[in-house]
Predict the 3D structure of the following.
Amino acid sequence: QLQLVESGGGLVQPGGSLRLSCAASGFSLAYYGIGWFRQAPGKEREGISCISNGDDSTYYADSVKGRFTISVDNAKNTGYLQMNSLRPEDTAVYYCALVRSLYYRRIRKFDEYPYWGQGTQVIVSS
């Protein structure tokens, strides 16, 4: 059974850092693209980053570019989102999701991810 578990969220001060993890079980991440999404209170869910496990192509939304870094460790079957220089507007529930594809064009389509984790809360506040 395919399962995704996010962890690493929490409360952090503005300017701080967090690393989110997305641990997969029941299958190998090697054949999947990984996306990170977030949903702030009262807002729609947005795709903020994705990575192709085929060629390591990445995408970042403008709102996180230069501050967040997506990666995947296939040996640990885990994806990561390193978040630096956090801002109050980064406060949201963060989700990882998977799509079975190694093609960047497919992985970049944020509305076509069928497998989702449960989410982890990130609060950026002083």
